[in-house]
Design brief:
With 325 residues, this protein is of the alpha/beta class. It has a domain at 234-325. The chain has helices at residues 2-15, 240-243, 263-269, 289-322; strands spanning 27-32, 35-39, 44-45, 48-50, 63-64, 67-69, 84-86, 105-107, 122-124, 139-141, 146-147, 156-158, 163-164, 170-172, 198-200, 206-209, 215-217, 249-253, 256-260, 274-276, 282-284. The strands form six sheets. Strands 2-1-4-6-7-8-9-10-12-14 form a ten-stranded mixed β-sheet. Strand 18 and strand 19 (256-260) form a beta hairpin. The longest helix is centred in the C-terminal third of the chain and has 34 residues, at 289-322. It is rod-shaped, with a radius of gyration of 36 Å. The protein starts with a helix and ends with a helix.
Length: 325
């Protein structure tokens, strides 16, 4: 501490700084009418404050390990710990009379300037999180990204001008964003997995999953099947012989009764209907079995029609024999 004090004293002699109480290991640089002042506020502990009107409020009671860079950054700090504010007017209201405000990280002009008693907020970008008042655990990244005016809780907004209007909600981009990629944009780079309990689509259709792994879709589930998307189109022909090789099974899975096919059995007949995930587990494309069954029914109907024709002819012969003709 003595070495630091001597260094500050030397700076004061060379550059016209003034030095106040040095007991709490703070560094403060602020422009005054007589030059620059380096201060050690007795009410702040282990803090670094640089900029005009930083920590300008009187009556600070207990503020520890705060860092402020910029004009009016942390301007009203009286109490609150571990705040970091970089930029003009950043975090101005943190730790004022309304509360303690701790653990906030604010980077950018006026970022989080109304947070006040809010805690553990992160705002990065010009005027980000400007409308959060006393909110906690919010994250806003992007110029103008914010929650609506009020005590926001647990909101995440990423992108320029994003507005997150509900608590415990995450928003990526404004309504002008047309695509969201995870893990890369080029084909073959999409290796990320999205984990969620539900998805709401454009027209309020929902996709949800129950605790037993059942997926429920509100509305019809359709699959793109335009012939213009396909090459090497051929008829499956007669599929009865393949169908006869399959055997539906009943079984239990995770304690619930189910009916279906075993992927290993289907793979022997129609390997193109079986896929393998990253863990080596097999999955069945059940919807693609529909064409197989359709052709099987058509073949059965053709056989039945021929049999009915033969039966009709036999009935005629029997009647002729019975009538002695």
């Amino acid at each position: 501490m003595k070495k630091n004090y001597y260094l500050f004293t030397l700076c004061a002699i060379l550059f016209g700084f003034t030095i106040n109480a040095q007991t709490n290991r703070n560094i403060g640089i602020s422009e005054t009418t007589t030059g620059l002042a380096i201060t050690a506020n007795t009410q702040l502990v282990k803090s670094l404050i640089i900029g005009a009107n930083t920590v300008n409020a009187a009556g600070a009671t207990d503020a520890i390990q705060n860092t402020g860079f910029g004009v009016q950054a942390l301007d009203n700090l009286k109490q609150g710990d571990n705040n970091t504010a970089f930029g003009y007017n950043a975090g101005t209201a943190i730790g004022g009379a309304a509360g303690s405000g701790s653990g906030n990280t604010l980077i950018g002009r006026a970022s989080g300037y109304q947070i006040g008693a809010g805690e553990y907020n992160t705002a990065v970008g010009n005027q980000s999180a400007t409308e959060v008042i006393g909110g906690d655990y919010n994250t806003f990244i992007g110029s103008g990204a914010k929650g609506d005016l009020g005590n926001a809780q647990g909101r995440i907004g990423i992108g320029q001008g994003v507005v997150v209007s509900s608590d415990l909600t995450a928003v990526i981009g404004k309504n002008t964003v047309t695509n969201v990629y995870f893990g890369g944009m080029a084909a073959g780079e999409w290796n990320a997995t999205l984990h969620a309990t539900g998805i709401t689509l454009e027209n309020s259709e929902t996709i949800t999953n129950a605790s037993d792994g059942t997926v429920v879709v509100s509305g019809n589930l359709t699959v793109s099947s335009d012939m213009r998307l396909k090459d090497n189109i051929k008829s499956l022909g007669n599929t009865i012989s393949e169908i006869l090789k399959l055997d539906g099974k009943s079984y239990t899975r995770d304690g619930r009764n189910e009916i279906g096919l075993l992927a290993q059995d289907l793979e022997l007949v129609y390997p193109e209907l079986v896929s393998v995930d990253g863990n080596g587990m097999l999955a069945v494309n059940y919807q693609a079995l529909a064409p197989v069954l359709i052709n099987g029914v058509k073949d059965q109907e053709a056989r039945i029609a021929k049999q009915e024709e033969r039966i009709a002819k036999l009935e005629i012969l029997v009647n002729l024999l019975l009538n002695g003709k």
